[in-house]
Amino acid sequence: MGLEALNEQVKRDLALLSFGGTNWVRAQEHLEGHVYDVVIVGGGQSGLGAAFGLLRERISNILIIDENAAGKEGPWETYARMVTLRTPKHLTSIDLGIPSLTFRSWWEAQAGVEGWEKIDKIPRRDWMDYLRWYREVLDLPVQNEVKLQRIEPTQEGIHRLHVSGKGTSQKIILARKVVLATGIQGGGEWYIPSLIADHLPRECYAHTSEEIDFERLKGKKVAVLGGGASAFDNANHALASGVAEAHVFVRRAQLPQVNPIRQMEQSGMIERFHALPVPDKYRVISHFFKFNQPPTNDTFNRAASWPGFELHLDSPWLGAEATDQGAQVQTAHGTYTFDFLIISTGLLSDPALRPELRLVEQHIARWHDCYEAPPEFRNVLLDAHPFLSPGFAMTSRSEQGKSLLHGLFIFNYSALASCGLSASAISGTRSAIPKLVSGIADQLFLDDREVTLQEFYKYNEPEFTETWVKRHVLG
Predict the structure, then answer these.
(1) CA 97 to CA 80: how far, in whole Å?
(2) H/E element, 434
(3) What is the CA 14 to chain-centroid distance, rounded?
(4) Rounded-to-integer distance, Cα 308 and Cα 33, Å
(5) 475: pLDDT confidence band, cut at 50, 70 and 90?
(6) What b-and-e string marks burial along 220-248, b requiring 16 or more CB atoms within 10 Å of the CB?
(7) Would you say residue 292 has pLDDT above 70?
(8) Spatial distance between the Cα atoms of 437 and 53, rounded to a whole number of angstroms
(9) Which residue among 34, 109, 151, 469 is buried most deeply as judged by most CB within 10 Å?
(10) What is the spatial distance between Cα 72 and Cα 77, in angstroms, rounded to a whole number?
(11) How many helices (H) does the chain have, and how many strands (E)?
(12) For the whole prediction, is pTM greater than 0.85?
């Protein structure tokens, strides 16, 4: 087909659905400047998909901001080091049911149907190219190199977004609704164990979420702490970059074999998670955390195929210190010395860890505020997650915070506990975006309910203008 022809097909498909109709949301005025109905923080896949969803609902006074340069949004060309995505290629996502907007259509337009059949999983860099195309073909309103510093609620139900960066034209952006589509790290911070952070100089290690100068590590000996998919991605990337040895240390006696996401994709769990009672939601995610996501077979085999790869099972790190020879780590099975450490220990989700939320985080309800889990299912990491509505809206710990949090939505990894696999997995975005959009649209409509209903009751514009003229029968 070719990309130009696909672009035309996208436009036709959207036209057939009357995409781009008149915005129905009542405009707000403010002395400080233009008020956006929705500002989306984050221009990665979740933010782009959310924007398209809003536009489909005729909510067009929107803006996306992203702190990265154009085309560098999300992890795909920064810290993501997998060769391919882990998601099955046939699952759809931010196309929102428009066939011409799927990754498959984009791929086949360039490689043909046979090209689609040949690939097993979607190559990581091609996924990023698809996102760039998606943004361009939909003409989504993105301002790059704009970083959110803090959210300041006002008494008028409008949020001041204090921003900075090379792409900013003003220091404050006004918004009625704010969506934090800030990715896997946007709900908290990456976790580095204290035995490393408190005992080693920063030049000795890096978290997998950071940029790593692998060129400097050529011929060196590195260790990777962690047993998840990212640990093996980084080991393979390091060895492919010329590292002499990469040792992966896992605290478990054997690698997890079950990936609960595969069951969730087939059972309706992703689509219908919001319908579960609160105790079931808690137990499901607590169970999910026990397994998390193991490496795919191809990822493991790719890493293990290198002569310099070594796997250490049942080997949690018990201590670490800097020596003249390098970073020394102690395990129950011995002490090892490495030139560099790569830490793949995940992240912590808690609104208190987010600087942009410092003016409101004390009001945000967490799971431990709303549900006391039985001891056998209790998970302190889960307890710190924000307790959200089914439409991803923040909820308040008290009446005092309700007005301050009204209009704030979390569409990042920390929504996992409340809304299931949504912004935390590509396979969840297809069903999550409509719920987010519905939650935002409902709020906007209800905020203006009184005026809207008054206008409805006063509406008196004639539509039927014909008259009946009785015919005379001749006889």
Answers:
(1) 27
(2) helix 426-447
(3) 25
(4) 59
(5) low
(6) bbbbbbbbbbbbbbbbbbbbebebbbbbb
(7) no
(8) 6
(9) 151
(10) 6
(11) 16, 17
(12) yes
